[in-house]
């Protein structure tokens, strides 16, 4: 294990920012810390970097307890959303700073800087001062500086936040290869769920209460631990409707806009309980009026979303529903449409606690699943 | 249908006419009643200058602006009958958010009940009903932005101008609010121009998009047309996410077949009938071209040009795949979860109907699929 945090507590005066955070990152892994501002993500990075010390708990890097270890002795590279380049030094000297600090010889520095600059496609601007660089070039320079010392741990604090959409997309595709080539162990902070899913081997979803779920992108998207996490991942946002599961002849059912939908028999335990059903916009499809379980939807408007078309509609109860489908596939643009929900792709949450409810794998449920 | 707004040969110079900074260059635009238009471009492209001239906050250096049958370029903003949600056209700090939103209707002496009903409707849509009694400085930037938007949308005016209306919204709300706002505007038939740097927002809301760069209007067309027939390389690569794949290519006639050499030893070969005669003739006459293909139009197939996967990123509802291809990278979008590993070799097909050909020097579009541009 490259990095382990155990029961980290950090307070600023009476404000407890981190209250018992534990986290571990494997060698070569990219762990994304995802969450809204104010969740304590940056404080956590600063603790790992050694800029501040925890009130309680231990930080271990490469098996070594970091208590009392100076930041420069921790084997850490960092890059930030505001780039934090030295304004009076050109890109070369900025990138070389970690090497100069450890007294590497000039030839060694030059070849190392050139190599990393080539990899990041900034070799043509190496003699430029930060103010002469575009935001994209600044970001690459900062990244090069973080990588050049071949740190054990790389801390990236929302590095793509201030670059334009096109470059952000490009970097999102490039970064994993770059990080893999360096065999870097990375903690990557972002507020962009797409970045989190694209870059993270695992994602730790953090909010003011702490880390609420840690898992692979699949775990987080397909089995979000609570309503809030379900809302944070996905665009358009997941549809959430109040339901109370009931038992009927066909099995366990919920009612969507007056139309019953049979759900997994493993939800038998939650019959009669107030729940929220979460239905992702891409788990809904348009169907013919006479299809079984077709739910009428009054179409309000259609908004293209990159390679998708998003339809906003109202159910008979006046509840908003968003449906998303690949652009160019058929669907009604106005009037009344009919939708069907894939019962295998619904999420059920407790209405009081917001916690996810998974169906119990009862023998009956298994039998039904087998047919 | 006639134009509500008509800009004819509009120029904006900062500094002396002719020698100052030419921020907007002979700009022509017709906007029909009830249309939603997006002025789209990166910072400094001239979109905000254009909007401010229409609003009357900037002097029009040359040309005419006609709104609802009157020439307005010399009129002060208040006499143009334009509703605005703008940076720098902020909320009145001394009255509550609710009073700000209702201000124009009250000034027009609408009955209180009607004002209240309209305020309720627009603020429910934008989810700001809980801040109506608060003062602008005590609410967040995103809430101020929505209050400003509500104040503009509630009005009855010849034209609604919205400057980056949704820049500060939390991402979870953005797609939903875009849908609601579009529905609200369409239901009332409001003629609207919005300025944005975000091509996703422009595509989501606009009937037509005016793409600007360097003070010059690059293309003014529906989102569909811009997607299928971008006027030039700038428009083609600026609009669309992921951006269009672009490669340098050399066309040649190989025994009747058209061969496109993309460098790095990669050739795409197309049969004698793959292109319409005029497109084929153009390709062979031009030789050196820029070839564009949108990520959604690149398909993995058993037969096709070789590419090697360098990233496969699943975003929940789609997969973005990047693969090394020719001398560069090609990006594909798939709607299902793509089952390919990094390092794996794939074959991709670039169908003639999905190829966009651009002039290598000027970037102007030459052909889109089967048709000449």
Which helices and strands occur, and which strands form pairs?
The complex is a heterodimer of chains A (371) and B (373).
Chain A: E1 3-12, E2 15-25, E3 30-34, H1 41-49, E4 56-61, E5 64-65, E6 76-80, H2 91-101, H3 106-119, H4 135-148, E7 153-157, H5 165-181, E8 185-190, H6 193-199, E9 202-207, E10 210-215, H7 217-222, H8 227-232, E11 239-243, E12 246-248, E13 251-256, E14 259-262, E15 275-279, E16 284-286, E17 295-305, E18 308-314, E19 320-326, E20 336-341, E21 346-350, E22 356-357, H9 363-370
Parallel strand pairs in A: 3-8, 3-9, 6-7, 7-8
Antiparallel strand pairs in A: 1-2, 1-4, 4-5, 9-10, 11-15, 12-13, 13-14, 15-21, 16-20, 17-18, 17-20, 18-19, 21-22
Chain B: E1 3-14, E2 21-32, E3 36-40, H1 47-55, E4 62-67, E5 70-71, E6 82-85, H2 97-107, H3 112-125, H4 141-153, E7 159-163, H5 171-188, E8 192-196, H6 199-205, E9 208-213, E10 216-221, H7 223-228, H8 233-238, E11 245-254, E12 257-263, E13 266-270, H9 277-286, E14 288-293, E15 299-314, E16 319-325, E17 328-334, E18 345-349, E19 356-359, E20 365-368, E21 371-372
Parallel strand pairs in B: 3-8, 3-9, 6-7, 7-8
Antiparallel strand pairs in B: 1-2, 1-4, 4-5, 9-10, 11-12, 11-14, 12-13, 14-19, 15-16, 15-18, 16-17, 19-20, 20-21
Describe this structure in words.
The complex is a heterodimer of chains A (371) and B (373). With 371 residues, chain A is α+β, with helices and mostly antiparallel strands. Chain A has nine helices and 22 strands. Chain A has helices spanning 41-49, 91-101, 106-119, 135-148, 165-181, 193-199, 217-222, 227-232, 363-370, and strands at residues 3-12, 15-25, 30-34, 56-61, 64-65, 76-80, 153-157, 185-190, 202-207, 210-215, 239-243, 246-248, 251-256, 259-262, 275-279, 284-286, 295-305, 308-314, 320-326, 336-341, 346-350, 356-357. Chain B is of the alpha+beta class. In chain B, helix 2 (97-107) packs parallel to helix 4. The longest helix of chain B has 18 residues, at 171-188. The interface between A and B is large, with 43 and 43 residues.
